[in-house]
Fold Sulfotransferase domain-containing protein.
Amino acid sequence: KNEVIESQNKNWDEVAKSLTLEIPNNKTVWYQKHMAQHNLENFDLSWTKNLSNCFLIRDPKEVIYSFIQKFELKSAKQLGFLQQMELFNLIKNRDNTDPIVIDSKDILIDPKGVLSKFCNKIGIPFFEEMLNWPTGPRKTDGVWGKHWYKNVEGSTGFNSYNPKEIELPSKYQSIYKDCLMVYNEIYSCRII
């Protein structure tokens, strides 16, 4: 945690401004992955108006199960579902349209179909090369990559979807229910 914090700019306004400047490295598309749980209350999110916002969602049961393998879970806010709903509603109300939503299960079931629809929605061409990548870390992974991206670094494409039978301990049921309400509402707007 400290390594990640120390590696990043801690001034929220400067970070937001840097995310809406010119696209780096002479690229035409700049994919930015933001984690909703990192949004703090009362921070100005107007900078998101300048982006094509997309919500990548995942079944909260799977999220909770993964999270508790590494961390102690005490609150739904740790997972970002509640903050994601706030951001979803902000963008929906501000832009008068449903934001783009992709469920992780859908992209594993039909990578080409989902990516094609996504590209069409944001106005960029789809290329078959988007379905494969070389193994190993990427310089854009950040210092957290070594802690979180082991499976991605070992892959060369999308894995097949394999449903898991997950039985969450009873102490997480209220968190799961809170997250499931948010997930279901956002899920209803997915592009598939």
Summary: The mean pLDDT is 90.
